[in-house]
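FORM 7B: Structural annotation worksheet

SECTION A. Query
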Amino acid sequence: MSQPCNIDSSVLESFKKFRFKKLQDDTKLDCLILKIVADKLLVVKDSEFDGISLDDLKEELPG
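SECTION B. Predicted structure
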């Protein structure tokens, strides 16, 4: 049986800011990466990138 995760308050605040951002450039991305802490069932912010290119984002992501 699955259980819902709680969302850290800083994630909600970051998400609101992220959601209403305006892109400065069509070639750059804003990215918000979240992770789940399994033992606490908690969603937390892993990292955030502003104005990053897709190639640079690929370099930042694991594997």
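SECTION C. Observations
The mean pLDDT is 87. The first strand starts at residue 6 and ends at 7.

SECTION D. Sign-off
Analyst initials: ____
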